[in-house]
Amino acid sequence: MTQPPGGGAWQGPNGAESALMSLVKDATVRIHRPEPGYAPEGSDGDFLGSGFFIAPSWVLTCAHVAMEGRGRQVNVVYKAARGGDAVRVGGTVVAALPEERPGTGGWPAPDLALIQLVRPVEHPCVYLSERSTGMNRGAYYFAGWAAGGAGALKRLGRECRVVGTVDDWADGDEQVLIEASQLYAGMSGGPVVDLARGEVVGVLKSRSTDTDGGTAIGVERLRTLPVPVRAATAESDDPYQAVFHAHDRYHADRHNNPVDDEETWADVQRDLGTVAGPALTPQQRVDLLGRLAKLPPPVSTRSLLDILGDLGYGYRTVGVPAPRGWRDGLGVLYDAREGDEALERILRYCMSAISAERPYVVPSTRLAEDALWDWVRETAEDRLRRPFRREMARLRNQGRYAPGTEHLRTPEPADEPVRPPKAPTFVVLHLEPRAWQPDHYDWRVVARLSAVDLPVTENYQGTRSDELPARLGASLGKAFRMCDEPDNPAILQVVVPSALLDLEVEKWQLPADSLPLGVLRPVVVRCADSGPGPSDDADLEHEARWNRLRRGPTRAAVLDCDDEMRVPVPVTAKLRGLPYETVPVLCRYGGRHDTQSVVGFARVLDAGFGVVLWRRPKAERPASCTEFHLRVVDTVDGAVVADRLPRKIQELRKGVREGRPDMFWSDGIALVYGDPQPPPPDPLLQAP
User: Fold this and answer.
1) In this structure, what are the phi and psi dihedrals at residue 188, rounded to the nearest 5 degrees?
2) CA 179, 63, 20 angle in degrees (round to 5)?
3) Hey, how many other C-beta atoms are within 10 angstroms of the C-beta on 138?
4) Tell me: the pLDDT tens digits for 169-210?
5) Among 59, 404, 554, 582, fewest CB within 10 Å belongs to which?
6) What is the pLDDT of residue 450?
7) DSSP assignment of 323-383, as one string?
């Protein structure tokens, strides 16, 4: 390792900045392989890189640092006190983004990892920004460990500047370019702190070999950690929520501790002149975040976005990870207007957190809600007018603890939360083939939350079909986090021309080592080039057919197979005469190169059917046509209403994947599902 030279051109920090840098370095650790006989002060080749404490017993670092341990086991070495001896403690890599390095090249972004210590120890923690975008152009400071004189490891800190970005945010691998004169091997995984706001906003990822600088990853990328498939029953079920709740409680406890007289992060942020958005001081913010962190987290990102939407705040979805926790939602509100309106919006947000649906309830939940209400009431009394204070009191009295609802006050922790059914949500993937570039597609992704469409990303540079899963992974993952509910994943609707009906998106694996999409969630198709007939009567007929299918009952009708013999699909006029509850089934669909299949499918779509079942042309079919006809009737008629069919198809795909013989008949089954009327135009992203 290169020995860092002394001195530099930097003029030095002021008092508040110096205090901030000390807090950063106190929490910066080094990561080692767990080797027998290792000496904490040594640098015997087992040194992997840097990291930093973000919550009690939690370390944030780079995946390429943490995953070089032994079976996800590492040693974390830190200073227990300024000038004190080094302490070594074991740790386990709980999560990494991504979980595995590709076969070639370096570790791709986000390149983040969370390490949990194997035993509790006393240590300081940094303050992490709650904003959706933390690293903009400006002055920053980074810290990390590197080899100094005689090979000894030294903790270093340097000033740097953000000068741009590299790679594409649409792919989820955007990195921030930093310019620094002294960035050494071993500092990867160290913290990057905003000198103006006094909060950690990034993690050092790499250093350049031919320029003074390197790259960093924004801490907001931790929001892309996998969301548990099942509904949470405890805070520990979701590492993201567990880490950030512990982080916020730590800083609130430190700041409110009446005995400890050491400077806290909120104290230093005050001295820097920092404001937490337009409405809160650093002290108010840390107190509020600590109270929010004692509540159970939001049920889902979708429920959090609903709360923000009800406050009249349109979340900016493009280029930033969607919020997941209460602190994330508060960070979104920092962009609200100045003055009383900004504070009022924050207090209304707090009232929504108090009355929100819970993924689980523990005995301390009621106390946490009361404590948050106390903060709202006291803040409103101190700074806002009487009409607003009356509004807050009314909201409190209308909540779950209103007079006369005492039976709701102390739910047992074991009680299963009752969730009212919500309207289905869709992630919509538009794929448009390039006529001038065979096997290349433009695409865009939209999150459809009830009646609200939120653009996620788009790409009009052409992507080869075999590259689509890798290129779309980050964008679809973000949209799924925005729309999924516990035990109720959003439906993926793939909008393609009818010529692309053979594209098996349900078999995509995101990432490559995961289960197929069609096993993890409902995947349906919508034909972009199908639409209403040429008359108003046809429009009304198509709408009536769609509405009847959604009310039920549904009835399957096999149109292209009779007594295991292929027959032509009826002409359009005969199809239009079928009962409105009919769901057409195509048993003999042969693919885009089979003219009879293409023509027959087109007739079904032109007749205004918004729900169609068929089998992929190359799917293995161990069952006879008779078996398929029998089971598909059971499936369609048993669903009763069309809205249940997407999840019925998912159950069948899951059963085939699990090797259930009773579901083999459905191998290759696919579903067109969508109102045959032209949908409203999706919101487009603004051109740069």
Assistant:
1) -55, 135
2) 50
3) 11
4) 555 667 888 888 778 888 999 999 999 899 999 999 988 776
5) 404
6) 67
7) P-SHHHHHHHHTTSPSSHHHHHHHHHHHHHHHHS--S---TTHHHHHHHHHHHHHHHHHHH
